[in-house]
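Appendix B. Extra example for self-study. Work through it before the problem class; the solution is given directly after the inputs so you can check yourself.
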Amino acid sequence: MTIERNARLREVQSWGDLFRFTIEAPAMGQEARPGQFVMVKVSDGAFPLLRRPLGIHDANAGGIELFFKVAGQGTGILSQKKSGDRLDIIGPLGKGFTISAATKGKKVYLVGGGRGIAPLYFLARELVKAGTRPFVLYGGRCRTDIPLRDRFEKSGIEFLCSTDDGSFGFAGLVTELAAIELAKAKPAMIYACGPDPMMKALASLAAKHDVPAEFSLESIMGCGIGACWGCVHRIRNGKGNGWVKICEEGPVFPGERILWP
Ligand SMILES: Cc1cc2nc3c(=O)[nH]c(=O)nc-3n(C[C@H](O)[C@H](O)[C@H](O)COP(=O)(O)OP(=O)(O)OC[C@H]3O[C@@H](n4cnc5c(N)ncnc54)[C@H](O)[C@@H]3O)c2cc1C
Ligand code: FES
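Solution. Structure tokens for the complete assembly:
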């Protein structure tokens, strides 16, 4: 884990209320694994006091990228930052997705809903490096909600889009698209990130098709480093059910351990 109090925001790209930040943070970029997150101080002042958790959208030797949607005041303040501004970030934090030798040469599905696509681009790139074949199912409410499709296209990563209103790609929920694709071919693994109802539906699809799955959970986080107990979630463990801190033990968990709300 690194604390970058003065990381330079190199590039800002935006699509309505969705933003992509490229941040110079070499140590963080080299350490980051897909599914991990950072805690960002969104303002130089006292408000808001708490940092905001954001998944690592991509990482390399030069730094990290974030992809976020404006959800409230904190992300609203963050979205005002300009290229050249400085950011105070802590990370990488948490435990990310499993990239296993067992899926080498095999196809795996990555299912992202809305801003939940954020960590899946980095994951897809790392899977390709590991010799696994990622197939991304990218869903949003409408075509403007899925701006990263160009990025997947340019990277040569196989993907399909869905929109709830039918304005681009498959017309319907991304879980409906996943059900169709699962009926055609069984992947070696499913990775997902998105709203809870989407992931819950996907967890039952994965169980029905007997495919192992990992899900990135969200929670409101006070500290991101295991100190405040603000992020607890009930999880199955060997002895029964228990509360775990998502920031420390997650945010990624295997499907069979998650007790969906
Ligand atoms: C591990 C992790 C990774 C995340 N990665 C991303 C990412 O890559 N991109 C992205 O856009 N967002 C991501 N989020 C969600 C993001 O942290 C919240 O949207 C953000 O903290 C909201 O802050 P705010 O001050 O703008 O909104 P607030 O004013 O604090 O809240 C606005 C609304 O959003 C809800 N909210 C706040 N925090 C969360 C949360 N963590 N999960 C769900 N609802 C929340 C509040 O209940 C409220 O209804 C992630 C969350 C976690 C826990
Ligand atoms: S966010 Fe503080 S313990 Fe997890």
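Self-check: Residues 196-208 form the longest helix (13 residues). If your reasoning did not lead you there, revisit section 3.
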